[in-house]
């Protein structure tokens, strides 16, 4: 094959690859616009690489071959839509996840909360609720739970239902116990749950001051004023526009001197609200609203 033939073949392959990429982008936009218009869920400003991987994974999981075929099924079959939402909303969490963050919260934020007559805490994007129960346990041990309300929200109804039930896999308790102790736990972790078969159920007193509700950070508005907002490892999946929108929502929802807790790979910097906070602990991404 001559060099001219190789050049022509290379150009042809590049053009086909470009066409496939453009077609994929169009299909993704149509899918996301359809979901937004028909169901009211907005994924259009999620980070593209992660979103693309999850969409294709779900295409294959549904036994399909194209994103367009997935769009058709999602818009005509509610069950398919709910399976897709469960996949896209990334329900990944654990109790006392990143124990140092919880230890730092216990050391630096709990003393501030002691001065409040009433405490409202919002766990935004709570997934299946592990961090919500972690917070309840910490507040209980610090003698603050009776004057606290924990609002746990997520866009994923299946995850919320599991969070409400407070039932978790017993195989995870070894790791959760380790996390609890590293996070400054003061009791035996097993005091907080009852084991039954292959699961554990957390004791009802931990749920008495919890309120669970569906809330979409991309489309829903502020619904209360809070002293603390926990939103950890959620916004890493958002693009800059959606991330800034959510920070605006949190700023509106926090009381003066309210506390914002982000995930290890997240930051208030490079957002429109960076000057509105001071760092209580920069390494653990704990900030206090000052403006």
TrEMBL record:
Ranges for domain CheR-type methyltransferase: 16-268
PROSITE patterns per record: CHER
Cross-referenced Gene3D superfamilies: Vaccinia Virus protein VP39 (3.40.50.150)
Domain of life: Bacteria
Single annotated GO MF: S-adenosylmethionine-dependent methyltransferase activity
Gene Ontology terms describing biological process: methylation
Protein keywords: Methyltransferase, Transferase
Identification of the protein by name: CheR-type MCP methyltransferase
Organism for this UniProt entry: Paenibacillus algicola
Biological classification of the source: Bacteria, Bacillati, Bacillota, Bacilli, Bacillales
